[in-house]
Design brief:
By secondary structure, the chain is mainly alpha-helical. The chain contains six helices and three strands. A hairpin with a 2-residue loop joins β1 and β2.
Amino acid sequence: MPKNIGFLICLLIMALDITAGILGIEAEVAQNKACLSNFKLKLLFQHFDNNNPELFRQQVKHLRLWIFECREPSHKAFNLGLAAAVLLALAHVIANLLGGCVCFWSREDMAKASANRQLAVFSLIFAWITLAVGFSLLIIGTMANSKSRKSCGIAHHRFFSVGGIICFIHGLFTVAYYVSATASAREEKLAGHGGHA
């Protein structure tokens, strides 16, 4: 395999994670814009239509009281959040498939392992943790903006933006995993060839 292909794979992984992070933050912006425009609509109707409370209730699309809110979902936020979650998962799958399987079976294996192998295992663990947290937050935000979720409940603010930031962190751990896993595989291959010579 050419040496430049590893650099291109790292760029691909980072590009996917950065794009996922940006889409997650953009989904938060789209959700907030929808809430803000609905809040302005509420104030407008409250100001001009105090005589007709039924019309006011029908027109209010977003109402928040402490940590509870009633609002209509944002279709744009749903699409952006779903795209961010898919890109995050795709970056993780690519890194894990191309990086290979790196694990320890015992403490002795960990003690004997090279620094690259140890870094690969710890990066893989943190990549999985950031994937679980980031993916969960993006999916929670996405489901809160599903068309079938026109209901009241606990406010779902900041799920998209925090999930987007975690996508950036995931990119760092995933690239660290890929680089250290391929370096570890190269070391083992050279050690194997050296032992047979």
